[in-house]
Amino acid sequence: TQGMVCHETFQDIDGSWLFPDEVHKGPAGGWKQKNGSDVKVGRSQKMSKSKKNVVDPEKIINEYGADTARLFMLSDSPPDRDLEWTDSGIEGAWRYINKLWKMVSEPHIDLSQKLLSKPETLDGVLERKHKNIHKTIYNVSRELEGFHFNKAVALIRELTNDLESIDPDELYAPFVYRKGIETAALLIAPMLPHLAEEMWYKLGANCMVADTAWPSYDPALLED
């Protein structure tokens, strides 16, 4: 699902290639080897064993989990463009995964107050957020079908940011928040299968996300 994965190249003073985990930034900001020797930093190139500008996926998986690596690669750039591998990108994906988990494990709204159907009326703010849930289902489905994974992830991020701003004291806030977080768990499953299953279980589901239908949207709620 991705074009070339690129990374900076590093050489010692004799011109021998160095692995990224053999170098670090010194106090002055320049790159150094672990023994303190200088490092020549080259341009970013496609990952290659011969130039040693590769990252061990096992290290990433052990430290952050497979979902983090998947999210970073899918959200950073479209499949037809190269991906620049960065530590900051991995850390950003990890922070978002932790945010998603916190939204179901430590929600600012009581998730136990589940309403099975939409209330007859919602006020202006909650109605807009409820519409946004249905718009997100429609738009994420369309972007996934078009292989625009980075756009799909961005839309889910926008949805979860919108859910975080719901006032817990608003009438029917639990309905909108729960509907939104359930939707987010289902939509993020193709990118984060392990986290999505844990979120789904935490929400009290009696089946797996893998056995749950893709969420549907109400066409009437796509209109402003």
Description:
This protein is of the alpha+beta class and 224 residues long. The protein is 46% helix and 11% strand. The protein has helices at 57-64, 66-76, 87-105, 124-145, 149-164, 173-188, 193-202; strands at 5-11, 17-18, 23-25, 31-33, 40-46, 83-84. Strands 1, 2, 5 and 6 form a 4-stranded mixed β-sheet that branches. Strands 3-4 form a two-stranded antiparallel sheet. Strand 1 (5-11) and strand 2 form a beta hairpin. The longest helix has 22 residues, at 124-145. The protein is elongated, with a radius of gyration of 22 Å. The chain starts with a strand and ends in a 22-residue tail after the last helix.
What is the element layout, followed by pairings?
Elements: E1 5-11, E2 17-18, E3 23-25, E4 31-33, E5 40-46, H1 57-64, H2 66-76, E6 83-84, H3 87-105, H4 124-145, H5 149-164, H6 173-188, H7 193-202
Parallel strand pairs: 1-6
Antiparallel strand pairs: 1-2, 1-5, 3-4
Helix pairs in contact: 1-2, 2-3, 2-5, 3-7, 4-5, 4-6, 5-6, 6-7
Which percent bin holds the helix content? 40-55%
The total beta strand count reads 6
Largest sheet: 4 strands, mixed
Our measurement of the CA-to-CA distance between the termini, rounded to an integer number of angstroms, reads: 34 Å
Report the total helices: 7
H-E string? EEEEEHHEHHHHH
Tags for this entry?
alpha+beta, elongated, 4-stranded mixed beta sheet, two-stranded antiparallel ribbon
